[in-house]
Amino acid sequence: MEGRRISASPRPCSCRRVSASKKRPRVDGFLNSVKKLQRREISSKRDRAFSISNAQERFRNMRLKEEYDTHDPKGPYSPPVLPFKRTKVIEIVAARDIVFALAHSGVCAAFSRETNERICFLNVSPDEVIRSLFYNKNNDSLITVSVYASDGFSSLKCRSTRIEYIRRGKPEEGFALFESESLKWPGFVEFDDVNGKVLTYSAQDSIYKVFDLKNYVMLYSISDENVQEIKISPGIMLLIFNRATSHVPLKILSIEDGTVLKDFKHLLHRNKKVDFIEQFNEKLLVKQENENLQILDVRNSELKEVNKTEFMTPSAFIFLYENQLFLTFRNRTVAVWNFRGELVTSFEDHLLWYPDCNTNNIYITSDQDLIISYCKAESSDHWTEGNVDAAGSINISNILTGKCLAKINSSDGQPKVEKKRKRSGGSSPGNIRSTVAEALEDITALFYDEERNEIYTGNKNGLVHVWSN
Fold first, then answer.
1. pTM above the 0.70 mark?
2. Sign of the C-alpha dihedral, residues 352, 353, 358, 363?
């Protein structure tokens, strides 16, 4: 679903730029052919009704099936170097029947969906605090981005570990990435799944470098102290330079080799703050404080404006590359726009739980037809027992129509959950101790495994819940 940027600061980053892209693990043989046929039918624009009914069937009767615990009182190492307390789950990634759950403490645990056992922790040294995860489908590996107590948590360190090593409980068999780069604040690393690239920024020498995501070979570098920001879009990069009084210099580069495709200036209103500049293919989106949204076609300089009363500055974007649309998030609401500046969809029942748009609580399917989010539950949705005000719902909505196709809430999820016997071995997640209502409280991370048709949620207590039919 995403390009992800992680900045080098001691605390977990709250600002993550997310964009939609394909996330399809490889599946071999006959199953792969079946999946291709299903996707071709589901994404067919000639039969949207089939797509909707298929989606409704996929999410019908989702139930709470498993509960995993990321917390171990001893931490990954004993005796612990860092005070690994029970903290909220901030990120979930799933690949090859393994669920990876990252807690705010920096501990990352891997759980097997086949055995429902905890396989291992991903922390390979006692002072490692993992900040973010990225599944690299190009080589079937998990990239962890970490900081370490030994250098005051000041530098980002990246590590690649093949999924097969993790499955064997051997995360230490991975290897370090980008060791030549000094990723101290305000440096960053960004993984771009759309173009298959990695962008790093070394702040101490003001150098951006682009690497191939398949083999981590450096392709080219950009050295310019005047570059304020870089935005990545399919096939291209937008370089935003330091602003002049009445304009901002811009360059568009080929993502493959860094060739300059266009060098131009965009006029700005004097003394007005720039809310955002975003690039999507040939469209440049510019919004200044209390001004109209400008949509510029960089090929022919055609400019469209959207009235500031119709388009207000959102807290986050998600670009839908398949549909040539983009999502905006503002004050718990989601809207879909096209690049003519027209509102395409507003959602009928998709009020987000968090007002600040925590994008780790949102998932866009690879066909970009569905959005799955942690939402405010309607009063009629609640189960009559328990703390109903604290429980939200997991809503599945059609992006093009805005219709809510399915939801998981405390009434539909069935509060009576069959208890699992305590499993042998210290790595077992044990019983499902939470009721459905409790599992729907304070969800802090969400992920949808499209191959298994399962939703994974993490909460403030460090627990991961599996929802499946």
1. yes
2. negative
